Amino acid sequence: MGCEIKPRVRVGVINPMYDCQPAGAQYAGIGIKDCIPLVHGGQGCCMFVRLLFAQHFKENFDIASSSLHEDAAVFGGRKRVEQAVQVMVQRYPNIRVIPIITTCSTEVIGDDIEGTITDINKWLTKGFPERKIHLIPVHTPSFQGSQVTGYNEFMTSTFKTIATKKTEPTGKLNVFPGWVNPGDVMLLKTYCQQMGVDATVFMDTENFDSPVLPDKSVESHGQTTVEDIENSSGAIGSIALARYEGAAAAEYLSQEHNVPCVVTPTPIGIKNTDELLKNIAELTGKPIPESLVRERGIALDALMDLAHMFFADKKVAIYGHPDLVIGLAEFCLELEMKPVLLLFGDDNSKPKKDKRIKALKERTDVDIEVVTNADLWELEKRVRDKTPEVDLILGHSKGRYIAIDANIPMVRVGFPTFDRAGLYRKPTIGYRGAMELGETIANALFTHMEYTKNKEWLLNVW
Asked: Of all residues in the chain, what percent are helix, strand and coil, respectively (each to 5)?
């Protein structure tokens, strides 16, 4: 059967599937400790993104704005950047990293960010000689790309700015998970610990699931340090879990500092998790422990209990980040489901040549349609017109009303997910993630069967 890849045919975007590039850069930025991203643009360019983060994580994060006004369109925004950096350095004595994230307005007027950083560094050296503050230029014009490309751009710019020198060997493994939840980061750390691998996760967002402590301290911040980034050039290797979200930083370390790099398939499902652990073992020389073999077996048993009876031949529409969507599609095939419609929400042309997409058609007996630069109106129209007809939707919370109106069960996965409790705490990747996601899909289908009275009696004899 075929796997057709084509762009959205309409010129305009109706109900975007993603946010803009600066949103992705801000997400990567808050993953660094002692870092406050500075969004060079209007206040809304950070205010609405912070709202998304607060909705998803139910936490607040520090993000600054240069707060451009109309005069900057004529005279440029250089002074606003200088003033913002000065205020941040004076107000936050522990700040060590300030990424300067451009927006559509500052890219259109042509602000020289690199030149501005050069001048700021001069007075920083004189005014604060005891402090080393890294200013990172991150070019993320909102009129192209998406939050996915913005995340990738931030990662690349950060490592090019901070990891400039080859350090002494650290014996550590660099792990680039991409845009994932704290639950995924914690799972990756657990896997590496069980394998005896000393790993550094970029970016370490475990504390985005922050505790309430007796001393009333706030821990909603990233744990990746400046030293972690500097020492990444001395690692034994890098492994990237998302081709379009951070893999470019791993490839930079490979090209510039000869750090071996592996871009592994996004580890959603059993097969891709097998591949992840195999690649970690090959990079580090560490064996896969019996504890992970057992976890794999538990996940297999849980999924086998569900696959043939409830999942087989169910047609699925999936939307979101390319790496996530492809990983979910591969997982659906493991569950005997048919991923008939895949939607990516930006103008990135690279997925058209992605070998993983081409491999999908070899593993299924149905036609798979892949739409790039898609929006949620594309999903709504196809679901309404039944082109194709689907039994399940996988995607983030912004598509919830499409599922409600069409009376189709939907499982929330991706960013943002704000209408279900605690999803950021649950892993999607790994064996445990496969089991939890499979069971979540099953429970969504069970609820729909009961609500519509469609063969709900099966649940009595299962």
From this structure: 50, 15, 35
Q: Give the sheet arrangement for strand 64-65, strand by strand.
A: 64-65, 38-40, 97-102, 134-138
Q: How far apart are CA 15 and CA 298, in angstroms?
A: 40
Angle between helices 270-284 and 182-195 (to 10 degrees): 50
DSSP per residue, 403-457: HHHHT--EEE-SS---SSTTGGGS--SHHHHHHHHHHHHHHHHHHHHHHHTSSTT
Pull the structure tokens for residue 62. 């520090």
DSSP string, 367-400: -EEEEES-BHHHHHHHHHHTTT--SEEEE-GGGH
Beta strand 261-263 with 315-320: parallel, antiparallel or unpaired?
unpaired
Strand, helix or coil for residue 287: coil
* Cβ-based neighbours of 174, under 8 Å, separated by 6 or more: 199, 200, 202, 232, 235, 237, 238, 239, 250, 253, 259
Omega before 88 cis (within 30°)? no
Give, rounded to a whole angstrom, the gap between the first and last alpha carbons of the chain.
33
- Are 374 and 381 in contact by the 8 Å Cβ rule? The answer is no
Query: What is the C-alpha separation between 103 and 93, in angstroms, rounded?
Result: 27
- Give the separation between CA 35 and CA 39, rounded to whole angstroms: 13
Helices marked H in 196-269: 226-231, 247-257
In what helix (H) or strand (E) does residue 316 lie, and over which residues does it extend? strand 315-320
Encode the chain (462 residues) as per-residue pLDDT tens digits: 667 888 888 888 999 999 999 999 999 999 999 999 999 999 999 999 999 999 999 999 999 999 998 887 778 899 999 999 999 999 999 999 999 999 999 999 999 999 999 999 999 999 999 999 999 999 999 999 999 999 999 999 999 999 999 999 999 999 999 999 999 999 999 999 999 999 999 999 999 998 888 887 777 789 999 999 999 999 999 999 999 999 999 999 999 999 999 999 999 999 999 999 999 999 999 999 999 999 999 999 999 999 989 999 999 999 999 999 999 999 999 999 999 999 999 888 888 889 999 899 888 888 999 999 999 999 999 999 999 999 999 999 999 999 999 999 999 999 999 999 999 999 999 999 999 999 999 999 999 999 999 989 889 888
Non-local CB neighbours of 322 within 8 Å, separated by 6+ positions: 148, 243, 244, 344, 348, 351, 354
